[in-house]
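Let's practice the habit of predicting before peeking. Look at the sequence and jot down your guess about where helices and strands might fall. Then scroll down.
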Amino acid sequence: MDVATHVATYMRSVHPERFAGGSLQLMHDMVAAGFHGRKSGKGWFIYDKNDKKNKKGKRPMNPGALEILKKHSVTPKLK
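Done guessing? Here is the structure:
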């Protein structure tokens, strides 16, 4: 997550027209919270050292990441 944030920030500064319309703040908030992905054990998911998954074979979602996502969610504007 931290590497993706760094790359996205750089790419937006070099090609602003291609990266317009979105906000990188969500990614920055994830990194600030320490959710760096596999290397920190948490990102969008919780990564167990033993690579344990739930019954459906999927990793559990990180509740802290979901809170950050809720903070940045928007309601679609219907015409």
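How did you do? The helical segments are 2-14, 25-32, 63-72.
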